[in-house]
Design a protein that fits this description.
Elements lengths: L2 E6 L8 H16 L4 E6 L10 H8 L5 H12 L2 E7 L7 H10 L19 E7 L17 H10 L6 E6 L14 H20 L1
Parallel strand pairs: 1-2, 1-3, 3-4, 4-5
Length: 203
């Protein structure tokens, strides 16, 4: 059975572009697969604790790890993982970093020689929302610590075979006066993001 794990991370519940576009993917995916399973996790509404010394000690002692095991089980059960990720200070929301820290465990690491791992074959779709533009050729392309980081992390887990990014950029053009000149580009970027996620959802 097809199974979608949908994770939102935006601190904004109203007007969030990453929630809007990731939601469009989830809606199209579910419409195309009415018998599919759907799991939703909102890391802003229900944040995970950051991995601390006590949690690390428990992991190393191989003791009871209910939260870690539950999060890992969600990833293992899904054949598609959808992430809604706004860019905060050129990087990820800390809530997403916390989720990654819980699921990046030795048992899920890919083999360094083959790149194959327990999770290899799953599809990852990352929907981002960015206040400015970080596309190749733009002045702030080198400030993008979001996509390169996630590519590295998912590669370490063997999840880079079917990894796709959809960027909605210039989301601040409508509210920041000195970005007013980019409003049409922002609208076009958002429309394109919606088009791409609808196509990806039914592929």
């Amino acid at each position: 059975m097809a199974h979608l794990l949908h994770i939102d991370t935006s601190l904004r519940f109203e007007g969030s572009v990453s929630r809007q576009v990731s939601g469009a993917f989830a809606e199209a995916w579910r419409a195309a697969r009415p018998d599919g399973a759907y799991t939703y996790r909102d890391l802003a509404a229900d944040p995970l604790p950051h991995v601390d010394p006590a949690a690390l000690a428990t992991r190393q002692a191989d003791g009871d790890r209910p939260l870690e095991q539950r999060l890992i089980a969600e990833v293992k059960a899904a054949d598609t993982v959808l992430l809604g990720v706004p860019m905060y200070n050129f990087g990820l929301p800390s809530s997403l970093k916390a989720w990654l820290d819980w699921i990046i465990v030795p048992e899920l690491m890919a083999d360094q020689q083959t790149g194959e791992g327990v999770l290899t074959g799953k599809r990852i779709v990352v929907v981002t929302a960015r206040g400015g533009s970080y596309a190749p050729g733009t002045p702030r392309h080198s400030f993008d610590f979001q996509e390169p980081y996630l590519r590295a992390v998912f590669g370490m887990l063997g999840l880079d075979r079917h990894l796709e990014f959809v960027h909605a950029e210039l989301t601040l053009a409508g509210v920041v006066p000195h970005m007013a000149q980019f409003r049409e580009l922002a609208v076009a970027s958002l429309e394109d993001a919606h088009r791409v996620v609808r196509e990806l959802a039914v592929a």
